[in-house]
Amino acid sequence: MCLAIPGLIKSIEGDEAEIDFGGVTRKANVSLVDVEEDDYVIVHAGYAIEKLEEEDARKSLEAWEEVMKAQQKARN
User: Fold this and answer.
1) Burial class of residue 65, CB neighbours in 10 A (0-12, 13-18, 19+)
2) Number of structural domains the chain divides into
3) Has residue 1 been placed in a domain?
4) Whether 10 contacts 19, CB under 8 Å
5) Within a 13 Å sphere around the CA of 30, how many CA atoms are in the beta-carbon half?
6) What was the pLDDT predicted at 2?
7) What is the pLDDT of residue 4?
């Protein structure tokens, strides 16, 4: 099973974008989707495969935050 975290495009140069995943920046190919800076995307195997609406991305990020909090609580 693959779980995807939305990332925010910070810059695009050609087919490559710098994408921010909660403070961790990675490069990914964006040739498969029609995106611009400040768009949210899902990345798989180095390629942006889906553009997300900002509201959907924020809901997903909030859900991930809850998962991380629950894991941290379970460890303590």
Assistant:
1) exposed
2) 1
3) no
4) yes
5) 24
6) 67
7) 82
**Amino acid 32: pLDDT:** 97
- Structural domain range at position 27: 7-75
Q: Specify the amino acid at residue 14.
A: G
Q: Taking the model in full, what pTM does it have?
A: 0.85
| DSSP H or E run through 62 | helix 54-75
Helix (H) or strand (E) holding 23: none
48 forms beta bridges with: 43
29 forms bridges with which residues in the sheet?
16, 47
Residue 38 within a domain: yes
Does residue 22 belong to any structural domain of this protein? yes
Q: Which tokens sit at 2?
A: 């693959």
Q: What pLDDT digit, counting tens, does each position of 48-70 carry?
A: 999 999 999 999 999 988 988 99
Q: What mean pLDDT do residues 37-57 have?
A: 95
Q: Which three-class secondary structure state does DSSP give residue 41? A: strand
